[in-house]
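It would be a great kindness if you could assist me with a short task in structural biology. The matter concerns a single protein, recorded as an amino acid sequence and a row of backbone structure tokens. The record follows directly beneath this note:
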Amino acid sequence: MNFLENIFKQLEASPDTSFLQEIHDGKPVVVNGAELLDMVGHARAFISQKGLKKGDRCALLAHNSICWVAMDLALMAEGLIVVPLYARQATAELVAMMMDCSPELICCGDTELKNAVKQNWPEVPAQFLFDEIFATRANAAGKPRLADDDPVAIIYTSGTSGEAKGVVINAANVGFILERTAARLDLLMNGSVGQERVYHYLPFCFCASWIALLSYLSRRSLVTLNLDLNKLSGEMRAAGPDYFLNVPALLERMRKAVDEQLWKTGGIILAIYTRAKAAWTRKQEGKSRVADAFWLGLAKGLVFPAIRKKMLGPKLKGLISGSAPLNMETQHYFAMLGIPVLQVYGLTETTGICTMDDPRQVVPGRVGPAVDGLEMKLGENDEIIVRGPNVFTGYWNRPQETAKVLRDGWFHTGDQGEVDAVGNWRIAGRIKNLIILGSGHNIAPEPIEEKVLHHLPGAQQVVLVGNGRGYLSSIITGSVTREQAQAALDAVNPGLPHYKQIRAFHLQAEAFSIDNGLLTANGKLKRDAIAARLKNEIEEMYQVKQAS
């Protein structure tokens, strides 16, 4: 039984069980197993009427919704290859991806998206709105037309330093990963009974988010879908999740929000919280004092449970974090509150996942061991290379690009890493992001950027530059003064070797974003584009420093 047959089996076996819900004006709109299958049936009938054949590509351009889920399941069930696209991405970039994969059909979530594509692509293939698709009167069912080696999705990479590439993922890739996620989630739930509740806000067009969705459906979970990021905090509490998938940026904001709220509240609660935090930090550093156990015990009884309940609801068993390394201090912070944060590492080319933290043995700062059945090792320049059933079959229509990363049966991730004696991995950064100074020193920028950012609460991003130069400089975005920036560097530099110290900086109020073209669709820095856009400012940093 393949993964899609299993999901259909779960829906059929639980016709009255709620699977998905959206929040509209504070009220849930819910679909159960029977209703979701009915929606899938209408979409399958529509697709069949259009005469599409197995293996045809179909673009799915919409924000997260129940309709998105039903459409995805229907397309795969009909043997089509789904091309999920990010609705917030620049239309020109979306059109370039679609022209690359030549879809027979484009399914759009709303008229605005449909019209934007038409304006940028006059020869656009047939486009249909969700409203049209699900309004069809016919209903089709039957076993999904899917074999293990059939491609089910082409997911485009973020394109941090060039043109996005379409990653072809087949049914076997997905089935393997879903078995591994189920095993880790079973450990997290630790024998809990009843239906699992999950909150989800990350776009389904990204691989890890899509895999999470399929995992939830396979487990008969109730998934609350976020439709408005401005309502995250309230919806998270209302959903009462057991766990949910996150990106580090949200966890950082949640942590800062708690600190800010307690500073405003003041009083005895703040006093207990502040002392307990200090005690927890000393405990991690092996420098505990006699009174620390008292303050931690007091906080665990009076303060931490209230924070957990107000922040994330009463049922939460853990948070899952991916897409980028999580600040170790943030991971320690949530552990202090009694909330384990499990890190996941992977790429689109590995069907979203290579490693997952074991809930029984979380090591802060690391991303857990490789999932069972996957081989991981270090290659040249400490590059992580992997081999296993989750590794993709190749890039769409790019045999040369495929040959560069798939060599002798191993996928070369482009990430630098290290592994400890018990198999827990740490990700150092992207090899292509390495800064090579004029002295020949190779420097991974990400860990240093994270250290500086930690000392600058008002900053949005810190980006190191210095290829071919005599020293490192940094670009700092957000609401930061020169005095604050210098103080942060003064705090970080002494702990770094001389060649990793930052000697100059440039402040920029406007943060790098998707809209200004300096972040990818999933929020990663476009370092080459940043260097090109700020070429003059970078040159000025080096001229000023040399002149001084």
